[in-house]
Amino acid sequence: MTVIIIIVLLALIFDFINGFHDTANAIATSVSTKALTPRVAIMYAAVLNFVGAILFEGVAKNVGGSIADPFHIENGMQIVIAALISAIVWNLVTWYFGIPSSSSHTLIGSLGGAVFAGAGMDAINWTGFNKIIIILILSPIIAFAVGFIVLHIIRWIILLLGNRSPSKVNRNFRLMQIVSAGAQAFSHGANDAQKAMGIIVFALVAGDFQQELHVPFWVKAAAATAMGLGTAFGGMKIIKTVSKKIIKIEPMNGFASDLTSTVVLQTATHFGMPLSTTHVITSAIIGTGSAVRYRSINWGTVGRMIMTWVITIPISMVLAYVIYKLVNLF
């Protein structure tokens, strides 16, 4: 019981950090275009993250059962502790440097590394693990392409409606961003909060506290609350990187980016697939920005972000492996 309490606390700490780390991406476009003030945007996102997190559980079941079988694994509790510590450490490092890294990649990589350390390579469900990794890799490419197309469709619609003054167009899209930012925050909660739920369920099953991959209501409520509180805490470092250092975001491409990431995230959540909201949102911004003016994108910042994305899974796997060995000593 003591160990499961430690696991739940670590999972909630991870979700809290995820709230101010990843949710910053969800509201960066609306803050950048001044559709919402930072304070209002953060509180708005906190509420909708909580609602999104408490309504779904498909992703949680996938995370809890696809990477390894919690019903037949040795040292399952220690594995989860090592994975969560690893994910928390890497999230804090990337937050400190203002890098929009993926909490999803961090958690998936950490769980894989901890399983490898605690139960061996054969304990990893490579089919499920590889499926999740492929989806995580493809999602930013899809978000970029969809964002590029959506922006062109929006511009085409504006042309069909006739000549409109730029100030009026911007004013209308700022109003629309209030809705799109909320939808994006809801989608973030619906997908991202479930990953911590999945880890808790994995531990509950591995520790014989329950006999099925079901997410109890208390787990949903606790994870949703932790993410909501983390969002309320804010993440201005990440917001500045996403909203200012990639491209100057205008209301039109800000709305298009929000719409794109919402569609991609909701589709993945419907099929129970964990996505990186960081990758989806930033790729949508790059896609819509490329449609407006390719040369206006700060490709140096984009390159550094992509490098972080590439190294996150292997670093988190190695980190979790080392942490498991240290935890196991005690």
Automatic annotation (TrEMBL):
Compartments, as annotated in UniProt: Membrane
Keywords: Membrane, Transmembrane, Transmembrane helix, Transport
Topology of this chain in the membrane: Multi-pass membrane protein
InterPro entries attached to this UniProt entry: Phos_transporter (IPR001204)
Spans traversing the lipid bilayer: 36-56, 77-97, 103-121, 133-158, 305-324
Major location (coarse): membrane
PANTHER family linked to this entry: PHOSPHATE TRANSPORTER (PTHR11101:SF80)
Protein name in UniProt: Anion permease
